[in-house]
Amino acid sequence: MSAATGGLLEVACDESGSDGENLTGGNTDVFAHASVRLPVAHAAAAVQEIRDRIRSPAEEYKANHLLREKHRAVLEWLLAPAGPIHGRAHVHLTEKTFFVVDRAVDLLLGPGSAQTEAVTLYRAGRGAFGDERWREFLAAANQLLRVRNDGEPQAPVEAFFREVDALREAQPGAGVPDLLDRLASARPRAVAYRAGLGDGPTLVPVLNPLLPAIVATAAHWSAGGRPVRLVHDRQNMLTPERIAWIATMTRRAGVGLAGLTLVEARRDPRVQVADFLAGIARKIASDELNGRADPPLTALLRPYVGATSVWGDERSRLSLVPVGEERSPVA
Hints:
By secondary structure, the protein is of the alpha/beta class. Helices cover 51% and strands 11% of the residues. The chain has helices spanning 40-54, 63-67, 72-79, 96-109, 114-129, 131-145, 155-169, 176-184, 187-197, 210-221, 240-252, 269-289, 295-301, 314-320; strands at residues 4-5, 8-16, 30-36, 89-95, 228-233, 257-263. Strands 1, 2, 3, 4, 5 and 6 form a 6-stranded mixed sheet that branches. The protein is globular.
């Protein structure tokens, strides 16, 4: 099957870094959603080339095979301008702790300007409040938003607003005190949100980065006016109801999503290539975020990273997002 059928683009997708709703204390601090526009035959050739170069006996190759130092040349070949996916792939990154702050501010203050305010609060972060206090605030925000709660239904509300009050006492720099005061006055919204979680299953969990990443991916590939059909690795999160939600969101945004089909990654080499790219992008971006940057690898990744990536850290964003596309701090 071709990557383009008539006027329709077919794009294969996969993700890396899913920890459920535990975004501030999970195993990874970056979520990456990758997509590739390759004919099946070209993707199969790329996968075979990787196998031939690495020569591992593993039945299924993953990104960690390419991330080993002894296979550095294979990794660089895959990402390089002369490689098989350059100009044919895209990565939507989510910095998880910023995503928590963004979602909490959006819930409590409403959408729109809340995006800018989330950036302001996040970038004040540990510098204004100290490492321990900031970590406690992030954990409380995570607990406030997550669907699952084994204790008293409103306990996360109380814990979160205790942390907001603690931040207010820290007397941070200009612009932040007013924002914290507004958050402190938004308790009724938080109470209503937690109460609503008891009404039944949640269609779109606030803390799940996969669904908005898929919408962003569809928007990227259809930006030229051609409708796009996504072929995605099977995910428990992608129920028929949630796929319908994605279709609704893209339609409202004027995005030309023609459909979303689920497949087994091992049966579609295009999805395997997307899986490689997602895992590679997550690791490179995480290293950049945490001060362990490998500048040559960051430079190779940069052309693939989307401007609507949900990324709050200013220093690493300037390294990861292509020049001229830094204007959108959040999706």
